[in-house]
Amino acid sequence: MSDGRSAAAPRAAGVPPAGDRWRDKIVPLSDLARIRQQFRDRTIVLCHGAFDLVHMGHLIHFEDARALGDLLVVTVTADKYITKKRAVSVREDFRARQVASLEIVDYVAVVDEPSAVAAINALHPDVYVKGPEYSNLLLDKTSNISHEKTLVESYGGRLHFTSGETFSSTKLSHFLLAAPEAAQRNPLLQNDRVLFKDVSSLGFRLEELKLFLAKAAPLRVCV
Predict the structure, then answer these.
(1) Domains of the chain: which residue ranges?
(2) Residue range 79-93, pLDDT digits in tens
(3) What's the predicted TM-score (pTM) here?
(4) Residue 43 to residues 31, 69, 123, 135, 157: CA-CA distances in angstroms?
């Protein structure tokens, strides 16, 4: 099995600096069929997800996936189709860019639908990879993974669940949403909610704040 990172077409003389090569990796969804045709003799692996805040769990996931084939393609769910219990912290073009910046990833595309069905139809990956948290299909409320599994197996491909440790982008997102007001001005974060506010200008004295907290301590607060 050859190294998928050398599988891509050789670069022309005006090769961009290493830091800009992520641009060459991001392709329209319609290009996935071309990639399948170009590398029809290679084992292509597909990962799909939100990949909102790329963390160690994603890196392990991609490494495990890449070991299954010659070429690793990652598709990213468009912003409007992410329905987890959090707002999208990083918009889709930045999410695609951060994934494409990983050397282990060969191509990235944004999918404008809630599942990977369009990507699977176009690419026909030999292996479709999901994380271990999706392995119990009985918990798949949307049935997206069940439909994706059926589609992959219809042309001879297979669904594979990685076994690495599960990390939570949702928890990381919640942490960011609870950041101080100043940090929430970060242009990379789509967060209109202010959960903490600087009240120093209101003139409260420390003794007054301590008294307020002491009185509030016995209260049962619903957030």
Answers:
(1) 4-161
(2) 888 876 554 568 899
(3) 0.68
(4) 17, 5, 11, 22, 10
Map residue 17 onto helix, strand or coil.
Answer: coil
| Fold of domain 4-161 | Rossmann fold (3.40.50)
Of the candidates 197, 176, 182, 179, the one whose C-alpha atom is nearest the C-alpha of residue 88 is: 176
Q: What pLDDT digit, counting tens, does each position of 75-126 carry?
A: 999 988 887 655 456 889 999 999 999 999 999 999 999 999 999 999 999 9
Three-class SS of residue 101? coil
List the strands of the sheet with 127-130, edge to edge: 107-111, 71-77, 44-49, 127-130, 158-161
Q: Whose structure tokens read 């329905």?
A: 83
Q: What gap in Å lies between CA 143 and CA 147, rounded to an integer?
A: 6
The label of the residue with tokens 């982008």 reads: 169
Q: Which residues contact 42 (CB under 8 A, 6 or more apart)?
A: 2, 4, 7, 69, 70, 71
